[in-house]
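Issue 218. Parser rejects a valid record. Input:
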Amino acid sequence: MPAQSLALIDSSGQTTLSGDSAAVPWWSFTKTVLAIAALRLVEDGMLCLDTPIEGECFTLRQLLRHEAGLADYGLIAQYQGDVAAGRTPWSVEQLLDRVDVRSTRGMPGQGWRYSNVGYLYVGRQIARAMGLGLADALRTCVFQPAGLTSARLARLPPDLADVNMGDASGYHPGWVYHGLVTGTTLDAARLLAALVRGHLLQPGTLAQMYECRALPEHRCALHPDPAYGLGLMLHARDAQSHPVGHSGAGPGSRIAVYSQRDMVCALWQAESMQSDPAHEAFRMLSKSEQVPGAA
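Output the parser choked on:
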């Protein structure tokens, strides 16, 4: 399968494609999907952003912005080793015990810590509010309203049979505990376009999604003014004039889905390309370039 897949949507809605039409893993762009679902349920009165979740001391807003004080599992050596060995994913109870999520918790709202565990809680809230499994909830609440035909939640290895996993093989999507959405890069771009153009959320809700926590401690050449909103990576100042979206990575590949000035780019690359798709996506957005040879 191709080592790269690209979709560009310009301000008029015209698309440019490069690569093929196979689904790819969206990795942490799934967080944006979960945030959209949660906020649509907030609009419907089925969830609340600022009331502590039952039995917990943090709120949905804090979970969405990685301010709930929860640890993560990505850097745990045993997690990395078991994923690399192709072992069966741990149960959620085993995960929370090994992350030691209770005793390592920080004070909600006081610090920032990127946490996949936090989005596990988000997914649970969505499913519970809708009385559905998360796959059905996302299909009903996000994929169908956005008109996506390829997006789905992968739970078991057979769900990845037709997915381009890049340089990885034998991966179990259950290792992504908040859920792994797969779909074409075109559908990823379509989803972000629908979001930023106001087709999925009410204006006030979308404005809250852009309310961010500035992260100067994470400054780098690519991200000189980094911040995190509600399921979105963005700039702390004048966010809508700079790339807004989400990056993601997992075994075998990386993805970047960003919008800038009403143009959207979704770029997925196999890990063997040894490049940063976010860097390339930002370059295309800043210059509004088309991909040479794309059809």
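Fixed in the parser; the record now loads. The chain has one domain: 4-287.
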